[in-house]
Structure prediction request, 168 residues.
Amino acid sequence: MPNSSDSSDGVTTFVSASVADTAAVARRVAALLLAGDVVLLDGPLGAGKTTFAREVAVGLGVTAAVTSPTYTLVHEYEASRGLAVAHADLYRLETVAEIDDIGLEEFTGGRHVLLVEWGAAAAAAFGPERLEVVMAYGPPESPGQRTIELRAVGPGWGSRLAGVEGGR
Prediction:
């Protein structure tokens, strides 16, 4: 199980030593997600954003293979609990207008949970309530290690993030 540190400022940080640790954090997050939620994932190439998104989707009951939408921009999946998952990747997009053109707003309400890789640059476009997941490489002496920072944005996420912390 990954180690975590709690914070009273709406930020919780986990240290992941493996893909299994990353999956465990992602599934904790999945257990808290509701229809209409937006989760923005950010971090360098190879940090584990797609792995995290895949494990959130699995935690929501997606049974299809969850793959990176880098070239198709958005993949949509049926989940359980009456939810659907939209998984977007904004890596190749350069302007907010391009983001608007792919129509992500259709996934920000109703029964969807929207997972957006490379979403930090367009965070304001996703409204005042969201969870931001920032992934980073660990120190050079621990090459497989990752830091996963969960940031609650908006009053609704502050109390929900405590559910991830309490799941240790």
The two ends are 8 Å apart (CA to CA). The longest strand covers residues 130-137. Residues 22 and 53 are 10 Å apart (CA to CA).
